[in-house]
Each structure stands twice: as structure tokens, then as C-alpha cells.
Amino acid sequence: MDKKVTIALIGAGQRVLDTYENYTLKYPYEVQFVAVAEPRRERRERFRQTHDIADERCFTEWQELLARPKLADAVLICTPDRMHFGPTMAALQAGYHVLLEKPMSPDPDECLQIGAAADASGHIFMLGYTLRYTNMFATIKHLLDDGRIGQLISIQHSENVAYWHYAHAFVRGNWSNTARSSPMILSKSCHDMDLLLWLAGVDCVRLSSFGSLTHFTAVNAPQGAPARCLDGCPAAQRCLYYAPNFYLTGETGWPVSAVSEDTSSEVVLRALQEGPYGRCVYHCDNDVVDHQVVNMEFANNITATFTMCAFSQQISRTIRLLGTKGELNGISSQNTSQIEEIDFATEAHTVLSLPLGGGAHGYGGGDFGLFRHFLQLVRGEDQQAGGSGAMSAQSHLMAFAAEKSRLEKKVIDMQEFQRLRLW
């Protein structure tokens, strides 16, 4: 390893602890955190101790960190979604390479500004689009580019969120309310918009979308259900979403670690009695959709459909690519990654079972793959682009357009949408 990459972290939340920190601790000869900005003292101090960061390089606010002379090769930005714009623009201006967690911003204008600034900066800019780096989707892209199914005609892609994951993150959790975070199609599925844009290879020209919040509403609450699960719910024994069954299991990892940093039973119990994760899923202030479809047409006449649904048993993604000479069918879940290749001429069916890759708990290995590629780009070892700012902004505009279509029940022309700023 010729050069260890140094990184300044902005935002030491759960996402960092579960992914980028794990990589750094596993491969300390590749990368080192040398500065951190985090407003919560406990998390800042824990991160400082874990990575042996000097006190003078620990900051409460990101402005303090970026006001100093350049402290590292790159900045990793993992603040809440609505706090991405300021530190990203400042980091690019200060000369840092930037890895930004998705989404870029819940504001379309800010996305375009970030994209333009990133492309003009001359620095490495990557967004946390991990799906490209999973073994399954990377292999599908290779087979597609190799012409294995001829000309690509259509894509059918589904994100199966899992009923329990949706309840945790999008009913009780941080991404449940559009005003506080962003629409579901952006906060959860901008990954998938990027994936479809990447596979199609050209811009989306038209799209339409339908969907709603159907199940997690007060009308579906069990009779007599209180605002909190622990306030004597009569449906406790039969409810799929009874909070103690989620969080008082003796486990200490995610999702319990999202409820409380102290995962002892007593502290988690108190958090369920007082905090957001103890609320009845039918009596929350959530408003993001629990199912949605998006229909897309791309500039090369490829058509695509995307379906997001909360109601599956496991977290998984399935995809079907239909070409003039064959088809590819893929499924990726927490413990499975498989591609079926079908050749029309020979009628051969070939099944590829793929390893999940390092850090498989994070998007089927995509988290580690993404971070590794970013480090390679910073070191100058890989000339393959990690995705431009403009392309990242384009995938976000697809999500914003899909939400507009869903709400207004109309087809969106993407060129007109961007030219006239119709958001």
C-alpha cells in the first residue's frame, strides 16, 4: 500500500459505526480517521478514542473543522439528510475529496448545485450509492456491457423493504416524515434510481409514478391500541409490530443500537417508554408511502419499472433485464446473491451464486466495495470514475419527478422538469 488515505469525518452517526468505521478497523493500513466533527459529545468522544484522534482535531460543528487548514485527504459527510449541502460545498471549496452519504439533499436545487460544484472542483466526489458495488449488480453490469443478452430492451426492478425494517426506519424512525427527511422514493430508493440510470446508460426522458401510505395509519390500529406499545396494548400478543418484540430481545446490534447507544435492557426499556421507537406504528406522525411504482422511459428507448413495497419478509432486491438475445434475473438479500442467465438461442439456463463480499451485512458487501473504490480513487490507483456529480444529481431529479408524478397524477417530461424547475 503506497499511501494511507486520511479522512476527516463529519457526522459520527449509526451509519458510520456500522460501515465505514468497520472497514477502517479491518484495514488500518489503507485508511485512517484523523479528525471528527460531531455535536453529540458521547459519540464524538467514543470516535476519538477508537481512532486515537488528537483533541485539537475534534470539533462540535463542521464549520470549525472546515475552517482549519486542510486536515486530511478527504472528508466523509454523514450528517442528517437536510444537513448535507453546507458541509459538502465547503469541503469541495476547501480542496477535499468528498464521499457524501445519500441522498445529496432533499432540495433539488441544492442537488444541482452540489453536482455542478463537484464536477467543477477537479476533486473526487462520490455519493453513497452502494448497489453498484454489490457482487450481483456489478456482475449484471459486466454481463450487460459484454453483450450477453444482446440489446437491452426492458428492466423490471423491485426493492422489498421488509415489513419490520419499514416499521423501524420509516414509521417510527428518522425517515418517517417527508418534512423532516424526504420522500420515500428519495430517502430509500434513490439507490435504485441510480442503479436504473447506470444500467440503462442514458438519461431518463419520461416517467410516471403511483403509490400511497396505505397500512400504517390510525384507521388500521387494533381496537383500543394506545399511543405506545407499553401502555397496555390489548393487541400486544398478536401485533406484528409490538415494540418489545423488536427491541427487547437481548440483541445489542442494529436495530436495537438505533434505539439507544446504551443497549442494556433497562435503558432500552426506558427508551421505548419515552422515545419514538416505542410508539404504536398506527399512531405515529409518519407520512411516507409504504408502496410505490415508477414507470420510466430512457433516451435509447429502454423502458423500466421500479416497485418499492414495505410488505416482504426479508430485505431484498430483485431485478430482471430483458434483451434481444437473452435475459438476466437477479436476487440479492441479506444471505443470498444469485443471477440466472438465459440464452434464447441455446435455451441454456446458467445460475451464478455469488459471494456477498466483505462486510456482507452492509448492502450485500456494497458498503465495503464503495469505500474501497473511493480510497483507490483518492490514491490514484483506479482511473475508473466513481460517478460524476451531474449523474448523481440526475438520479435525484428522477426521484423528485417521481414524487411529483405520484402527487399530481401525471407523466413528467424530465427535460422540461429540469429546465423549468418544476419542483
How are the elements arranged and paired?
Layout: E1 5-10, H1 14-18, H2 20-26, E2 31-37, H3 41-51, E3 58-59, H4 62-67, E4 74-77, H5 85-93, E5 97-100, H6 108-121, E6 125-127, H7 135-145, E7 152-160, H8 163-171, H9 184-187, H10 190-200, E8 204-212, H11 243-247, H12 256-259, H13 265-274, E9 291-298, E10 303-309, E11 316-323, E12 326-333, E13 337-343, E14 349-353, H14 366-379, H15 389-408, E15 412-413, H16 414-419
Parallel strand pairs: 1-2, 1-4, 2-3, 4-5, 5-6, 7-10
Antiparallel strand pairs: 7-11, 8-9, 8-15, 9-10, 11-12, 12-13, 13-14
Helix pairs in contact: 5-6, 6-15, 10-15
Q: Short description, anyone?
A:
This protein is of the alpha/beta class and 423 residues long. The chain has helices at 14-18, 20-26, 41-51, 62-67, 85-93, 108-121, 135-145, 163-171, 184-187, 190-200, 243-247, 256-259, 265-274, 366-379, 389-408, 414-419, and strands at residues 5-10, 31-37, 58-59, 74-77, 97-100, 125-127, 152-160, 204-212, 291-298, 303-309, 316-323, 326-333, 337-343, 349-353, 412-413.
Describe the fold and architecture.
The chain starts with a strand and ends with a helix. Among the domains are: 5-127, NAD(P)-binding Rossmann-like Domain (Rossmann fold), CATH 3.40.50.720; 218-278, no CATH class. The longest helix is centred in the last third of the chain and has 20 residues, at 389-408. The protein is globular and about 65 Å long. The strands form two sheets. It has a nine-stranded mixed β-sheet. Strands 3-2-1-4-5-6 form a six-stranded parallel β-sheet, sandwiched between helices. 35% of the residues lie in helices and 21% in strands. With 423 residues, it is an alpha/beta fold. Helix 6 (108-121) runs antiparallel to helix 15 and helix 10 (190-200) packs across helix 15 (389-408).
